[in-house]
Design goal:
Blueprint lengths: L4 E9 L6 E11 L2 E12 L3 H9 L5 H25 L7 E12 L4 E5 L5 H5 L3 E3 L3 H5 L9 H7 L5 E5 L2 E8 L2 E9 L1 H10 L9 H5 L4 H8 L14 H13 L5 H19 L5 E6 L6 H10 L3 E4 L3 H20 L7 H4 L9 E3 L8
Parallel strand pairs: 1-4, 4-6, 7-10, 10-11
Antiparallel strand pairs: 1-2, 2-3, 4-5, 6-12, 7-8, 8-9
Length: 361
């Protein structure tokens, strides 16, 4: 008999490196209708040393990656353990953790999310569901995006669900299939140039707004092969490092102009990516705070109704949905859609590490 109520903690670390998102969530399900309540939620920032390590890890050797994985698992476990203790959370069914993506090369049959080693269950004294992407890549999929099944289950009333994080991605229904794909880099690039000005990020897009759009750069970015590809498709930091940043840096223009031009590029690619240019667009992720970016998206989609939700959902939607993926895995139910990732079949993905003193699975 499957349970109708689940108490879990969802954990997410995104490519924008703003920290680890944690959300204490109660899910209830009745007649296949899911409801959720986000209770405590928190983002724990990385130290400057960890930000630097995670930025450069794409170039690490296998041995260096193994050590990083061990160290990061210890760090993540401490963050999760402290969150549970601080908020006095009890009777957890599981901690559902994404880990942190270091390498994502589905075209080579490979993806690596660190922080998903089996010892994490013992370190936090909880059952852990994690490592959701590997199986999909093994089944020929992109291993991303994984959020769309959560969009379908938890936010069915919106025509489009979009996340503006390190990358932009969108999901929507088309011919009774959930379609989803990555659109373009966002904060991975915007934060990179904000860092050059001594800032963690461009608050509300204020600096981007002061710049001037460089049409040559804009055209060169828009002409990149990735944007011509059909879905399913996904992006990793390798694309930013090897393709996008070298193009931008080949232009001797002020940082403000680079930020402005790239913001325009993001907004334009989002508009081009949506098959219908009207309806409702539900935007979450850190980029939803970038007023200039939202204005430019609205400019290119004048008939679209843009909805930005409450702060808790906006900031913790990915933690929420990875929590749901973990619960679906515990139930043995499909949590990854082949229509989204391109895998050979829908499947129930992830690893379950059971803390020995528990007998709930």
């Amino acid at each position: 008999m499957l349970k109708k109520k689940y108490i879990v903690v969802g954990v997410m670390s995104g490519t924008s490196l703003d920290g680890v998102d944690l959300a204490h969530i109660v899910f209830t399900v009745k007649n296949n209708k899911w409801e959720f309540q986000i209770l405590e939620s928190e983002t724990v920032s990385y130290s400057a040393d960890w930000v630097n390590q995670l930025k450069i890890a794409v170039d690490f050797s296998d041995k260096e990656l193994q050590k990083l994985n061990q160290d990061y698992t210890q760090l993540l476990a401490a963050i999760i353990f402290n969150f549970i203790k601080k908020h006095k959370i009890e009777n957890l069914d599981a901690v559902c953790s994404h880990g942190h993506t270091i390498l994502h090369q589905p075209q080579n049959g490979f993806t690596l999310q660190i922080g998903n080693l089996p010892e994490i269950a013992t370190l936090i004294n909880q059952t852990v569901v994690c490592d959701f992407r590997i199986q999909d890549v093994q089944l020929g999929g992109q291993g991303a995006p994984l959020v769309p099944i959560g969009d379908r289950i938890l936010f069915p009333e919106y025509d489009y669900c979009m996340n503006l994080g390190g990358f932009s991605n969108v999901s929507f229904e088309q011919n009774n299939n959930r379609i989803a794909f990555d659109i373009s880099p966002v904060n991975t690039v915007l934060n990179f140039y904000a860092n050059q000005l001594g800032l963690d990020y461009d608050n509300k897009g204020i600096i981007s707004r002061t710049g001037i759009c460089n049409e040559d750069l804009l055209n060169e970015l828009n002409a990149l092969d990735f944007y011509q590809k059909k879905h399913p498709k996904s992006l990793g930091f390798e694309f930013v490092k090897e393709t996008v940043l070298p193009i931008i840096d080949s232009y001797s223009i002020p940082v403000e102009d680079k930020l402005h031009t790239f913001t325009e590029h993001v907004a334009l690619q989002i508009a081009l990516a949506l098959p219908n240019k009207n309806g409702s667009l539900y935007i979450t992720g850190g980029g939803a705070y970038n007023d200039f970016l939202i204005e430019r998206i609205q400019y290119h989609l004048p008939e679209m109704k843009i909805i930005i939700p409450s702060t808790k959902i906006l900031e913790f939607k990915e933690a929420l949905i990875f929590a749901l993926l973990g619960v679906l895995k515990l139930r043995g139910e499909i949590n990854v859609l082949s229509s989204v990732t391109g895998a050979s079949t829908d499947h129930s993905s992830g690893e379950i590490y059971v803390f020995n003193s528990k007998q709930n699975r």
